[in-house]
Structure formats: structure tokens, C-alpha cells
Design brief:
Blueprint lengths: L12 H4 L8 H11 L6 H17 L16 H25 L7 H27 L4 H12 L6 H12 L15 H25 L11 H47 L6 E3 L2 E2 L13 H6 L6 H6 L23 H8 L2 H19 L7 H4 L8
Helix pairs in contact: 2-5, 3-5, 3-12, 4-5, 4-6, 4-9, 5-6, 5-9, 7-8, 8-9, 9-12
């Protein structure tokens, strides 16, 4: 699409370019690999700390685009998410090939380098897959599956679409972090619970059509096949060391994903109306963040309140909510992720905000223990 004088501002390449910042991580990864030494830490430093610092100076972006903007005016935004899968695959397996043959990279440097690759495949890859899995075109949903398979976390698509969006803020959603639950307790819990909940959701869909779980329409067959392909490719390119490095970056990618999941809904619950019935999902059931720079890197993922309100809305059209309509994080995800790794600091920062949220939206609830302990009935 070519911009003209009559092209709406949102449709111009210049408006979309800030969201292309993720492409800069690829040359940074290769600089890390070629230089070795402490340079292997460049990727986590850039994504965690640099964007947190930039957020302080860049400030907030509270402007909202027209949510009815048609897809044909969003080409420059869509293309970055569509091309990311081949870009990431070439980078990841090219890096495995290079690193397993590089004499200047020692053991700790390989671990640091592929920690950084996990930052890319998790912070960017899984995040882009999240955008793509919500869209209708098959090519976009396939790109989502390919990106998730590179992190060995393909079931996230089923869990996210069939469980999380439906049951967020209830005891049936594993990834809604409970009040006072530290991340180091949360992480192993969701790793064990999410796979089962995703598989059961797909099996239940097939059962409603009188089909067995092992019917070829179950997407888990595709998930397993894609993951095996990428494991085999890692073995072919880098031997068993290549497989080990692939597994390490996949673990780091999943850790980043679940760290974000932890932040997005910590302590926020939907009101139980009785008999397993819960209120509808509203913007105040997700934490909102308007930090400009981190929203560029994360393609507006921090406008999470609107994402749950309108799940298929493309990322440039996600709406920002004010403090009157949705709870606000004090910082962007990059800083909040660092804080979440230290549970006492996290609780000191976030628990007063959760309690204020309760007073604001649910003054009628006097006993919060069933919500805190996830002992309310499962939703019908």
C-alpha cells in the first residue's frame, strides 16, 4: 500500500514504524554472538532495562485510534507480525549453527546468548503469535502456530482462546494470578495446569460433536508435529548441543510469557453472582499500562484491558483506558517484570493497588477469601 496525501495518518508507514523496533533485536543478537564475552547480555539489558529507561523519558501514549479503522489501512502494522515467523526462524537456527561452531563462545556465553534468544522468541515471538492467533486469516493463524512451536508452547493457543478469555478472573483460569501469590509459586503452577486445561478444552469441543480426542481435527496433532520438526531441525543444525540450546531458549521464552501473564491480571477477579455464574469480562479485569516505548516493543499488549473487552481488535486499534475505567500499572511491563521477580517488593507495590481496586469496583463484597484462595465455584 502506498501512502498518498489523502491517506489517513494511521495508515502511513511513519505511524507504524515505532512498532518495528523489534527488528533491531536481530542485529543485536548477532553482535552478541560475534563479540562474545559480556556482550551476550545485550539482549536482556536492552529489553528489560533500556526500554524501562526510555519509558521514563518518552512518557505515556493515551491517544486512541478509531477502532473501526478497516484492515486495508493497517497493512504496515500487520506485515511486521506476519514476517516475524520466518525472520525469527532464520535467526534462531542460524544462531544455533553459528554458536555450536564458534570457538570463542564458552559455556556461560552460550547460556547467556540463548537466554537472549529466548528473550526474542518469548517477548517478541510469543507476543506476536498472541496477536496473530486472534485474527481470521489462516496465514496469520499458521504464523502463530509456527512461532509457538519454536518455544515448544503450542498449546498456548488453545489455552488462551478456549480457557483464558472465557474464564479469566475465575478459579477455572490457571493464568489469573491470585492475590498474594508470588511469581515463583505461580510459574510452576501454570506450567502444570495450562497444558491439561488446553487439552481438555480441545477434547471437550470434539466431544460436543461426538468425535474422539484423537480425531485428526484436534490441533494438538499439528502442535506436536511442528514442535518435532523444530527439534529435529535443531539437531540437524547443531547436534545435541543445538538441541540443548534450543530447549534453553524455549524455557526462557515461556518464562517471559508467563511473567507477562502474571502481571496482566494479578489479584483481579470477576464477581461470583451465585451458582457458578460470573459477571461479564470488563476493562477493569485487566491491568492497563500506557507507557509509550514498551507498548511500541510489545505492540500495545499493555493495553490489555481493551484486548479482553475486544479480543479480535488489531493491536494498533486497541484503546487506552483512564484510571476511572481500568486499574493502572505504575510502570511498563519491562520494569514490572523485574519487580515481580522479587515477591516482597512486588507485594509492597501491587497489593495496596489490588485492595484499592476492590474498594472501587466491589464495595459490596466483604469476604474476599474465596477469591483470594480460588475456592469459588467453577463457572458454568
Amino acid at each position: 500500500m502506498t501512502a498518498t496525501a489523502t491517506t489517513p495518518a494511521i495508515a502511513r508507514l511513519s505511524a507504524a514504524l515505532p512498532f518495528w523496533l523489534s527488528l533491531l533485536l536481530i542485529p543485536i543478537a548477532w553482535i552478541s554472538a560475534v563479540w562474545g564475552g559480556w556482550a551476550v547480555l545485550l539482549l536482556p539489558v536492552c529489553t528489560w532495562y533500556l526500554f524501562g529507561v526510555i519509558d521514563i523519558f518518552a512518557g505515556l501514549n493515551e491517544a486512541n485510534a478509531d477502532p473501526d479503522t478497516p484492515d486495508d489501512q493497517l497493512w504496515w502494522y500487520r506485515i511486521i507480525t506476519i514476517v516475524w515467523a520466518p525472520v525469527q526462524a532464520a535467526s534462531l537456527f542460524g544462531m544455533i549453527w553459528y554458536a555450536t561452531r564458534a570457538d570463542h563462545l564458552g559455556g556461560w556465553e552460550l547460556a547467556g546468548l540463548f537466554f537472549g534468544m529466548g528473550v526474542i522468541t518469548g517477548t517478541i515471538g510469543i507476543n506476536y503469535s498472541h496477536e496473530l492467533m486472534h485474527q481470521r486469516p489462516k496465514v496469520e493463524r499458521w504464523m502463530a502456530d509456527i512461532l509457538l512451536a519454536m518455544a515448544l508452547y503450542s498449546h498456548f493457543r488453545s489455552e488462551h482462546l478456549l480457557v483464558h478469555h472465557r474464564y479469566v478472573g475465575t478459579p477455572r483460569d490457571p493464568v489469573t494470578a491470585r492475590y498474594n501469590e508470588g511469581f515463583h509459586r505461580y510459574f510452576p503452577r501454570v506450567l502444570t495446569q495450562c497444558y491439561g486445561s488446553a487439552f481438555r478444552a480441545e477434547a471437550a469441543m470434539l466431544a460436543r460433536r461426538d468425535r474422539p480426542w484423537h480425531e485428526r481435527g484436534n490441533p494438538f496433532w499439528r502442535y506436536w508435529a511442528l514442535q518435532l520438526v523444530f527439534l529435529a531441525l535443531a539437531l540437524a543444525v547443531g547436534g545435541w548441543l543445538g538441541v540443548a540450546l534450543f530447549l534453553w531458549q524455549a524455557f526462557i521464552a515461556v518464562w517471559h510469557l508467563e511473567l507477562v501473564n502474571y502481571i496482566e491480571h494479578y489479584g483481579l477477579t470477576r464477581e461470583h453472582l451465585g451458582g457458578g455464574k460470573y459477571e461479564y469480562v470488563k476493562p477493569h479485569h485487566s491491568w492497563n499500562s500506557a507507557q509509550k516505548a514498551s507498548n511500541w516493543l510489545l505492540i500495545n499488549l499493555q493495553r490489555h484491558s481493551d484486548h479482553h473487552y475486544k479480543p479480535d481488535r488489531r493491536f494498533p486499534l486497541l484503546q487506552n483506558y483512564s484510571a476511572e475505567d481500568a486499574p493502572q500499572l505504575p510502570y511498563g511491563y519491562s520494569i514490572m517484570g523485574i519487580v515481580a521477580m522479587v515477591p516482597p517488593v512486588w507485594r509492597r507495590m501491587m497489593n495496596p493497588r489490588v485492595r484499592q481496586w476492590r474498594r472501587t469496583y466491589y464495595p459490596q463484597i466483604t469476604d474476599w477469601s474465596p477469591y483470594r484462595n480460588a475456592t469459588n465455584p467453577w463457572p458454568r
